[in-house]
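Note to self: user wants both folds in one dump. Writing first protein now.
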Amino acid sequence: MAKIEVSPGIYWIGVNDRTTDLFEGLWPITQEGVSYNAYVIADEKKVLIDMAKDLKGDALLDQIAEVVDPASLDYIVINHMEPDHTGVVRTMRRIAPQVQFLCTKRAKSMLENYYRITDGIHVVKHGEVLNLGSHQLKFYITPMVHWPETMMTLETTGGVLFSCDAFGGYGALQGAIFDEDYEDLSFYEREALRYYANIVALFPKAVLKAIDKLADAPIKVVAPSHGLVWRKDPQRIVNLYTKWAKCALGELEPGVTLLYATMYGNTEKMVEAVAHGVARAGVPVDVFDVRHTHVSYILPSVYTRRGVLIGAPTYEGELFPPMAHVLDMILRKRIQGRDVAYFGSYGWSGGARREIATLVEKLQWHLFQSWEFLGGASADKLVQAEELGYRFAQSLK
C-alpha cells in the first residue's frame, strides 16, 4: 500500500503481512493476516514512529522513502521493543547512523540485549515533550501494556496517539487504513478482541492505568501498530479496551462458552442437549469443539462471558488431553471468577471429574455441577443434559 496521510505532515507507511501463520509463534493469523503500522512525521525534524519485523524490512524502507529519505531521519520512536516492531532497527541504524532512538529506560537496556545498540539513545520521561517544528511529541510511559518497557506517543498538534500494541488487533488492512472507510467494522472489532484476549488480557490493571493517564490527552486519532487507524471515532476502540479490561474485574456478559471434546461421539451427543437447554433459558451460547478450534479463537469467548460449560470424556483415568490443554491455557491467562459446570462420559473408569475439580480450584471458578456418566448418551441422560444446560444458564441470570 502507498503512503497515506493520517493528519497534516503525518503519514502511515506500514506494511501488511499475509504470509505469517503464527503471530508470536503461537496465535494463528493464516486467514486474517496482520498489519505492521509505522508512521513518519515530516517536519523540520523527521521522525519514524515504530517499525516492522525484519522480514518486512525492504517493504518498510520503500514506504518510508515515499515520504522522506530514510537516511535523513532524525529520530526513531520505539514505543515497544518486541521484534515485530523493532526487527529492522539495526538496518535503520546503518542507513541513518545519526538517528537518535527515543524510548523508555527499560527499552534502552533491551536495545543492547536484543540488538547490541548502546549509543544514540535518548531515554524519555513521562510527560516529556519534543518539538519537531510545527509538530510536537508528548510521551506517556505505560508499562505492562503489554511489556514492561512500553510507552505511547502523542503528536499534540493533530491529536494523533501512536499507541503501539494498545488498541491494536489482528487483521491485514483491506486496502484502507481508517475506521471511516469500512461500513462494517465487525471483522476488525472481533480481531481486536481476539488480539486482546491472546496478547494483552493478562494485564487489565495496566491497561486501565494507561487509559487513565490518557484521560486528558486531546486524542483525535488512535494509531496503533496493528489493525485499523481509528480516526472517525477514536473513542470507540478505547471504550472497547476499557470494557475488555473490566472483564477481568468481574464485569462480564451473562453468556455461556460451551467447550467440548469427544472421542467416539457420546459426549458430543450430550453437547447438543446441553446447548439446547442453555438456549431455552434465553442465554447466548458459543460452542467450540476444542479438538478442531485453536485456543486463540476460544479465549475471547471465555474471557468475556460469565458461564463456562465443559463437556469432555475421561481418558486413561484423566481429563481428555485436548480439553486439558485448553484449560491450561485459560489458567495461564488467569481468566478467573467464572461459573462452570462439567459433564462427560467414561467407559471402564472415571477420573476427568477429579481433574476438573482441581483445575476449577486453581482458576478460582465456582463449580455449579459436575456430572460423569457411564457409557453412551441414552434418552434419559439426554433429558438430564438439557436440564443441566437450562439450570446452569438460569443461574447466570
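First done. Writing the second protein, which came from a different request thread.
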Amino acid sequence: MKRTKIVATVGPSSAREETLAALMVAGVDVVRVNTSYGDHDDHAALARLVRAAAAAVGRSVTLLLDTRGPKVRVGSLAQPVLLTAGDEVVLGEGGIPVTHPEVVGALASGVRILLADGTLELTVLGSARGGARCRVVRGGILHGGKGVNVPGVALALPALTPFDRESLASARETGFDCVALSFVQRPEDVAGARDLVGRGLWVLVKVELAEAVRRMEEIVALSDGAMVARGDLGVEVDLYQVPLVQRRLVDLCNAQAKPVIVATQMLRSMVDSPVPTRAEVADVANAVWDGADAVMLSEETAVGKHPVEAVRAMASAASAAEGGEVPIRVPGLGRELVGEVSAAIAHAAGRVAAEVGAAVIVCATASGRTARLVAAHRPGVPIVATTPHPEVARRLGLVWGVFPEVIPAAQDVEELIQASLASVRKVGIASTGDRVVFTAGLPFRESGTTNLIRVLTVP
C-alpha cells in the first residue's frame, strides 16, 4: 500500500465527478483547489464536486484550498511585447502594466527583476511616475499575466489580499480541511490567516520566497505544515539551491511532526505525454526518500491531457521508492518534543511493531496528533488512525503512512479497541491472527493524553 500521499490539483481536465473519482481510485489522497482561477462560487462548486466523488468511491479525501496571495504579475497586454537586451523600459504606469506598480516603483536602483519564471531579466535604473525605469538584461517575448519576481527583496505587500481573506473566512463552511498560504514572508502572515480560519482547519505555509526561506523556522513553528513550492522558489533563490531548501524544509517539518508537501513540475511532461520521463520518476523517488509526506501534481491533473495516468505514474513511483532498499530519511523529533509522553509513546510504537512483527499500528486519536507523531518516525508498517471526528480523519489524509478511519464514539477503552480492530480488518491491512500495536490515552477521550500502548491480536 502506497504510504506517500498524492495531492492533485483540480482544473478543466479533472473537474468532473467521474474523473475525480478515477483520480481517487488511482491514488489521490488530497485534492487542491487553486483559487488563482475562478471566484468564490467556483471554488465552492469544486469542493462539492470533490465531496460527491469521494462519497461515490467510499473514500475520505482531504480538501486543500490554495490562496492566490499578493503575487505581482504583468497586467493585461493587447499583444505580446518584445524585450530586447539593452533597451530601456518602464515597468508600471505608461509602460508595461503590473498588478502592483507602487511596489515596483519603490525598488532601489540596481535591483534585479525577473519576469516569466526568470526567463526575462531587468535591472532597475530608477523610479518613474507610477512604476520603475528598467534596463533589459535578458530579453525575449513577454506575455500578459506572467509573474514578476524580485529575488532577495521583501516586498511591502500583505500576505492576504481581500480576496484571500474572503476565501479563508468561508473555507470551513465551503468544506475545506486545510488551507495553503501563498507568498508568505513573515510569521505574522501565518497568525493573520489563523485568525480567519480558527483552529478547525490546518494552515500550511508555502515556502516560495527568499524571505520565507530566511525565516523558515519561525514560520513553520506557527503553522500546521508546509509546502515547498518550487516554481517561484526557483526564481527567488539560486535555482541550484532549491533541492537544499527542499530537504531543509522536509527535515524541519518532520522534526515537528507536521506534514510537508513537495510541489511543482514533478511530472511536468505528462501534461502532454502519457508516460513520465526517467528524471521525473527520480524526482518523485527522491522526495519520498527525503521524507516528504506528500507529492503534488499541478498542471498535470488541472489542465493535462492524461490526469489519471499522471496519478497512476506518481503512485507507482512512490510505491517503488518506498519498497526499495533506500531508507527514508528520519531526522528525529525536535528538542521541543523530546521528553513529552505522547512523543515517547509514538516512538516506542514503531519499535515495538518491528520487534513483535506487528502488521499495523493503530492510533486512537481525538485530534490526530498521535498519528502525526508516529508517522514522523516513518515506521515500517501502516498506521491506522481511528477517530470519531470526520474532520480529523480528513485532515490526516495528508499525513504519510496514515490511513484514517471514522469510528463511533466509544464509551470505554475496551469498546474503543474493538471498534479499532474492526476498522483494521475493514480496510484490509490486517487479518485474523495478526498482531497490532495499539495506542490511546487515559483519561479516556481527552485530547493530548496519549500514554497507553498495547500489543493486540486481531480476532
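Dump finished. Worth passing along: The mean pLDDT is 93.
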